[in-house]
Amino acid sequence: MQTTLLDDAREFRAPQTMTPVELGDSLARLVWESFSDFLAQEEEIESPLPGVDTLYDDEGGSRRTAEEALIFFLWAHTRGAQLAFMGRAPDERIRAGLDELHRAVFEDMVEHGTPSAQLPLFEQRVSARYAEYHQAAADSDERLGEAVSRHLVGQAKRAGLVDAIRERAIAVANPLRDFLEDVELVDA
How many Cβ atoms are within 10 Å of 48's Cβ, its own excluded? Predict the structure, then answer.
């Protein structure tokens, strides 16, 4: 009997409901995990994204690439949540959860050294990339990979990078969508 109780306690149980705040906080943690894995080059997928240090030798290029990677992971998690809740939850509730995601990430950035005066500019870049990535994804996964690649490494073509980005977007969005499809997004 004791073993069964311990096994049950260790078993992961997905939540049946989430509020927009809970959704935003959960997504923010996932974004930071994906971003940290990218920086540490610990991605466990078939075609991992190359690390920042392999993309650029100079600090300015590396910093820009890290920011672009963060924007990409924000977009991929946003996309996964949108796909999961589209048609199942009111748009304003989905938007509230995604606003919480962005609020949490931006607060974390400030807590870890980003000057708050730089946030409006970063938010503008996020908004511009989201528009571009949504349009590219609507066209094809290949176009999405090309758009993200262009922002990560500039105009230079890197062998396999477009495919790695496409695979990474799918590796983030699809499992997240599948997980969230069993969760009801409820008011606080």
Answer: 17
Report the predicted TM-score, pTM, of the whole model to 2 decimal places: 0.81
What single string gives the DSSP state of each residue in 35-49? HHHHHHT---SSSPP
pLDDT per position as a tens digit, 176-188: 888 898 899 998 7
Reported as a single tens digit per residue, the pLDDT across 136-160 is 999 998 888 889 888 887 765 666 7
Place of tokens 């050294």: 113
Rounded to 10 degrees, the C-alpha dihedral 100/102/105/109 comes to -130
Indicate whether 11 belongs to any domain.
no
**Residue among 88, 50, 74, 60 at smallest CA distance from 130:** 74
What contacts 143, CB < 8 A, 6 or more positions away?
136, 137
Q: With b meaning 16 or more CB within 10 Å and e meaning fewer, what string describes 128-165?
A: ebeebbeebbeeebebbbbbbbbbbbeeeeeeebbebb
Residue 179 lies in a domain: yes
Per the structure, the complete domain to which residue 67 belongs is given by: 18-183
